[in-house]
Design goal:
By secondary structure, the protein is α/β, with parallel strands linked by helices. The chain has one domain (2-218): 3-Layer(aba) Sandwich (Rossmann fold). 36% of the residues lie in helices and 24% in strands. The protein has a six-stranded mixed β-sheet. A four-stranded antiparallel β-sheet has the order 2-1-4-5, covered by helices on one side.
Length: 221
């Protein structure tokens, strides 16, 4: 599903953060990327998301290469094919939980009735059935992250990208969110790529790779 070939990236004449990096993630597989701060994890995620451009190499989703020369095409690609889960949740406080989850559908022009139905299904799928009319401020941190997972999956993306999804959660909530993310990714048949500093979060994935010296290596259990 996701193929990365020969990816290279450096900033301001410094040493390369990515140096001929290769990666494959299969449909339904969840891969975690670990590494020290400044090792290039977020840079890799941003390039895969089309938010940053590589100096060299390519990213393919389902056999189709991302065109980094066309910002409009990249934005449309993200709307249709990518779902994002962030450390800080990024739920809009003035919208209901249902409308937050439905945002990706609104951007794709889906009707209001279908948005409401699909958002309700997505919330039920992460254990938040009945929370549709509530505001984010009334949710716990774990509930907000589960709502964010529902938002990331509601438009059935081929690729889910998670950036430190448990970074703002205590241990119990982190474990629940990781279980929820696993079930959602498997159920959707999406490819999932997560970057994290947390060994516990990394070990919840199907496969753990460590980014060091610009390349990925399998991390020992």
């Amino acid at each position: 599903m996701l193929e990365v070939r020969g990816l290279a990236k450096a900033f301001a004449g410094g040493p390369p953060l990515l140096d001929g990096l290769d990666l494959e993630v299969r449909r339904g597989e969840w891969v975690a990327i670990a590494g020290e701060s400044g090792s290039g994890k977020s840079t890799l995620l941003n390039i895969v998301a089309g938010l940053d451009r590589p100096d060299r190499g390519e990213v393919r989703l389902d056999g189709r290469a991302l065109d980094y020369s066309d910002d409009d095409a990249l934005a449309l690609w993200r709307r249709r094919h990518a779902g994002f889960v962030f450390q800080a949740f990024h739920l809009l406080p003035y919208l209901s939980v249902r409308d937050n989850v439905a945002l990706p559908l609104a951007l794709l022009g889906v009707s209001a009735r279908e948005r409401a139905a699909r958002a309700g299904e997505a919330l039920a799928g992460v254990g938040l059935g009945g929370f549709e009319g509530r505001r984010p401020a009334s949710l716990s941190g774990g509930e907000m992250q589960r709502a964010a997972i529902a938002r990331a999956l509601v438009h059935k993306p081929a690729l889910v990208l998670a950036d430190e999804p448990t970074g703002n959660l205590d241990e119990a909530n982190a474990a629940a969110v990781l279980d929820c993310l696993r079930e959602a990714v498997k159920g959707a048949g999406a490819a999932a790529l997560m970057v994290t500093h947390s060994r516990i979060a990394a070990c919840a994935a199907d496969r753990v790779l460590r980014l060091a010296s610009g390349r990925l290596v399998a991390q020992a259990p």
